[in-house]
Amino acid sequence: MSLLIAFASYRHRGDCGDIYFYRHDGSEKGELLGPLPTESPRRRSDFRPVLSGDGRLCAFACQYRETVPGELRLWDRKEQKLIPLPDRNTTGADAQPTLSADGRWLAFAGWKRPDSVGGHDLFLYDLEQKTLVSLPGLNTEHDEQMPALSGDGRWLAFTSNRPAVTDGENTATRILLHDRTAQKLVPLPGLHAPGYRDTEPSLSGDGRWLAFASDRPGPDDSHGAGDIYLYDRVAQKLVPLPGLNSAGHDCQPALSPGGRFIVFVSERLDGDGQRDLYLYDRRRSRLLPTPGLNHPSEEFEPCLVALDPELDRLDEK
Prior knowledge:
This protein is mainly β. The chain contains no helices and 24 strands.
């Protein structure tokens, strides 16, 4: 089994989310693994999992109903234990984690942190040094959310409702890309659609491919109120995803590091529950069977890594 998917589901406790893991061979076979342990008496709800490139580390957001509005946790799948994260937020909420492939960099969205600039801001945590690292020129007095790191941690895609300054666009929420090396935003020509919301970005390992969800009109009538799109930073244009979108609401895409596979959430009518997960193979332009993955409850917020890089290649051998 060469693909590892982490996702949140209500299948175990009904109104509280748990993190599950699922292995897939990249073709037609899959196996559901057990949930990540949680302290059920405290009613902790876990969601938004992200994985390191080798699948060992799993960062996730959690919330206790009786106490803080939200915080981050880091689980070591090999040692089966939580890893401490000093310098946590104790006055607001931290959520929407994303990990670099080597497991060193953890980016996340924070609300009402002492060092915030706006309402929601982005923060970067160095897991080796156990400290926050500055992101010069990134945050504004507007909201920055939904971060997505490239494999090496250089590229950081995110959403913002800041006004468009350089291109005159008028988008309610749009996706931006920050270069941590140059410490500045990078243009994304051909990506934005004026007047529509682009959200939930996901980057391939090298930062070339950018998957996202949008309410922009689809190219044909089969598309629903929300669809998934893929942007090629090299060609500077959107590329087709034949057979992926449906008449239902498709959202929350997660790219594999090599960019071949996309796991996503859909509310299409032929699913097992209200929200289900689907696995798309770009090389073969089709959805793959995922036996045992979905449940009559809900599955959402997936993450995907390829444990075999050769399987994740886009080009035919």
